[in-house]
Write a structure and sequence with these properties.
Blueprint (H helix, E strand, L loop, with lengths): L1 E3 L2 H4 L5 H25 L4 H18 L2 H8 L4 E5 L3 E6 L2 H7 L3 H12 L4 E6 L6 E2 L7 H6 L7 E4 L4 H16 L24 H12 L9 E5 L6 H15 L5 E5 H13 L3 H11 L2 E5 L8 H16 L3 E6 L11 H7 L3 E4 L5 H14 L6 H10 L4 H18 L5 H8 L12 H12 L3 H4 L6 H18 L3 H7 L5 H14 L4 H13 L1
Parallel strand pairs: 3-4, 7-10, 7-11, 8-9, 9-10
Antiparallel strand pairs: 1-6, 2-3, 5-6
Helix pairs in contact: 3-6, 8-17, 9-10, 12-13, 15-16, 15-17, 17-18, 19-21, 19-24, 21-23, 22-23
Length: 521
C-alpha cells in the first residue's frame, strides 16, 4: 500500500522559496557527503569479500547453527568501509532486526581482521525508501524550479513474500533453539501434558516417582536420563520441578544447565568466593537437576567442584537428577570417578517415539497452538518426522506461522512445500510382508519360522510382535494377518496383539525391540 507523504501537514512553511532553497541545499550537502565517503573508500570489492568471509567465519562460532544459516549465511554482505564506519546489507528489514542483535560480535570480528574499532551499520535491500517522485528531474536547476509541494515521497509498507517466509521461519527457529541460558522453570511443562508411549514410559514413571517422593526416602535418590536431543528430557525436568513445588513447597529446587553451573563456578572462583558456590548447593538446595551434564567434559576444574557437590548432597540424602545425550560411561572427557557416581542411581533412556505417540504429540501441540489440522496432515507429518519431538512440534509452529502470515489454509500441498516432504509417489507402501521380514531380520529368525506352526518361546515372541506391528502399522485385518502367519484364526491374532499391547507398557526391553523394528521399516 503506497501513500503520498504529507509534508505540508507536518512542516510549517513561511517563505516557500526559502524552504525550497533550504531543502535543495540539504540535498546538495548529502550528495557531497556521499561523494566524500566514496572517495574515502580504501577497499576494493575483492578485499571486501575476503573481509566478509572472515566475519562470517567468526559469527559461525558464536551464532546457533539454524540462526546463522537463516540470517547470516548468503545474506550478510559487507558493502563499504570508511574511516570510522562499516556498512553491511541484508535482504529484508525483518532479517536486519535479527542481525543487529549480533553487532557487537561483528565489531569484534572486524577488530580481529583489521585491528580497528568500527561503528557497525546494517541496512536492508528492501528497507523503507523515501524516494523522490519518479517524475522529478535529475538536474539541480530543474529541482530548484519545482515548488516544495511538488516534491513527493512514497512509503511502501507492504511486506514481501520473502518477509513473511522469513518471519515464519524465525518462529520455527526460536522453537527449535530455545534459550536455555539462565534456565527458568517452565510452568507449562507438566506430567499432564507429557505424552507417554512405549519408548519413554520408564523415564516418565521414574521422574513421576521422584516428584512425589524426592530424596533419600524415595525410590530413586539419583536419576540419570539420556537420549538424543529433542525427545523430552528437559520437559521431564520441568515437570518434576513443577510437581515438587506443588507437593513439597518447603523444598528448594534448582534446575540449571551444566554450562550455567560451570559459568557460576568460574565467576565465584575469580572473586575468591568458591566456598559460597559449594555451600549454596550442599546446604541450600534440596533438589538439584542439571540438564546436559555432558557439557562438563574436559572441564577438569568444574568436574572437581561437581564431584564435591555430588558427594555432599548424596550423603545428605538430597535428590539428584541429570540428563545427557549419552550414557555416563560413553561421555568422553569425564573422569571415571564422576562416571561412577552418575551411575549410582537409576539410569534410563528415551528412544524416538512410535507412530501412535508421534500423532498424539501432534494432537496435543495442535491444541496448545489453538490450531486445526486434519488427521491426514497429522499422519503425514508423523510418518515423516520420526526421531525428534522438538522438530515434530516445530512443524506445527511453522505451519501455524505460515498460515497466519500468508493467510492460507493448511493443506497437504502446503505441508509438503513448507516441510519439504516428498510426494506420495516416492513413498514405500508397507505390507505384512515388509513387517514380517523386518521382524525376522531383527530377531535373526528365518522368515519361514515366523510363518510356520513352530511354538518355541523365541519364535512365538517374534511372531506376536510381527502380528502386533502388522495390525498397528499396516492396519491389516485379523484374517489377513492370521492367514499370512501359518493360517491362524482371527482369535489367535487378537490374543497376540492384545498381549503385546499390554506388555509393551511395562517392558522397556520389548519397547526398544518394537521401536527398532519400526525404525528399520
Amino acid at each position: 500500500m503506497a501513500h503520498d507523504f504529507p509534508f505540508d501537514h507536518f512542516l510549517k512553511i513561511g517563505n516557500k522559496n526559502t524552504s525550497v532553497n533550504t531543502f535543495n541545499n540539504h540535498l546538495n550537502h548529502l550528495e557531497s557527503h556521499a561523494v566524500s565517503d566514496l572517495n574515502a573508500q580504501a577497499f576494493h570489492d575483492e578485499e571486501l569479500s575476503v573481509i566478509n568471509t572472515e566475519i562470517l567465519n567468526h559469527l559461525r562460532t558464536v551464532v546457533p547453527e539454524l540462526k546463522f544459516k537463516t540470517y547470516f549465511e548468503n545474506n550478510l554482505e559487507l558493502k563499504s568501509i570508511n574511516e570510522s564506519n562499516v556498512n553491511f546489507e541484508v535482504k529484508t528489514a525483518f532479517i536486519k532486526k535479527s542481525v543487529e542483535l549480533y553487532k557487537e560480535e561483528i565489531a569484534k570480528a572486524l577488530y580481529n581482521v583489521l585491528g580497528t574499532l568500527y561503528e557497525v551499520y546494517i541496512e536492508s535491500k528492501d528497507q523503507t525508501d523515501y524516494q523522490l517522485d519518479k517524475g522529478a528531474p535529475a538536474s539541480n536547476a530543474n529541482v530548484n524550479s519545482k515548488s516544495f509541494n511538488d516534491v513527493k515521497f512514497t512509503l511502501d509498507l507492504t511486506p514481501t513474500r520473502d518477509d513473511l517466509a522469513s518471519k515464519a521461519h524465525a518462529q520455527y527457529i526460536e522453537h527449535m533453539n530455545p534459550n536455555q541460558s539462565g534456565i527458568i522453570i517452565d510452568r507449562s511443562k507438566t506430567f499432564d501434558n507429557f505424552i507417554v508411549g512405549p519408548t519413554n514410559n520408564m523415564a516418565q514413571a521414574a521422574s513421576k516417582a521422584v516428584a512425589q517422593n524426592p530424596g533419600k526416602n524415595g525410590k530413586y535418590p539419583s536419576i540419570y536420563v539420556h537420549s538424543n536431543s529433542g525427545l523430552g528430557k528437559t520437559h521431564l525436568l520441568h515437570a518434576v520441578a513443577n510437581e515438587i513445588n506443588e507437593k513439597h513447597p518447603s523444598l528448594t529446587v534448582c534446575l540449571i544447565t551444566a554450562r550455567d553451573f560451570m559459568d557460576e563456578m568460574i565467576t565465584l572462583m575469580k572473586n575468591n568466593r568458591i566456598n559460597e558456590f559449594v555451600k549454596k548447593y550442599t546446604e541450600k538446595v534440596d533438589v538439584l537437576m542439571i540438564d546436559d551434564i555432558h557439557e562438563l567434559k574436559n572441564k577438569e576444574g568444574t568436574q572437581d567442584q561437581f564431584f564435591h557437590v555430588f558427594n555432599e548432597m548424596h550423603n545428605k540424602g538430597k535428590q539428584l537428577i541429570f540428563t545427557s545425550d549419552k550414557r555416563p560411561k560413553e561421555i568422553d572427557g569425564i573422569s571415571e570417578r564422576i562416571k561412577t557416581r552418575l551411575q549410582w542411581g537409576l539410569v534410563v533412556d528415551i528412544q524416538p517415539p512410535d507412530l501412535e505417540t508421534r500423532i498424539a504429540i501432534l494432537r496435543r501441540k495442535m491444541e496448545g497452538l489453538d490450531l486445526y489440522v486434519t488427521e491426514d496432515v497429522l499422519t503425514l507429518i508423523a510418518s515423516r518426522i520420526k526421531t525428534n519431538i522438538r522438530e515434530l512440534e516445530g512443524s506445527l509452529v511453522r505451519l501455524k506461522a505460515v498460515s497466519e502470515l500468508m493467510n492460507v489454509e493448511i493443506e497437504i500441498d502446503l505441508v509438503r512445500e513448507q516441510l519439504m516432504l516428498p510426494n506420495n509417489e516416492s513413498d514405500k507402501e508397507l505390507t505384512i510382508e515388509h513387517v514380517a521380514k523386518a521382524t525376522a531380520q531383527y530377531f535373526r529368525i528365518p522368515l519361514a519360522d515366523l510363518k510356520s506352526k513352530g511354538r518355541s518361546q523365541d519364535i512365538t515372541k517374534a511372531r506376536h510382535i510381527a502380528m502386533y506391528l502388522a495390525r498397528k502399522i499396516v492396519n491389516a485385518k485379523q484374517q489377513e494377518i492370521g492367514s499370512y502367519f501359518g493360517g491362524r484364526d482371527h482369535s489367535s491374532v487378537i490374543h497376540a496383539v492384545s498381549a503385546i499391547s499390554e506388555k509393551v507398557k511395562l517392558d522397556a526391553t520389548l519397547s526398544k525391540d518394537i521401536n527398532s523394528i519400526e525404525s528399520n521399516l
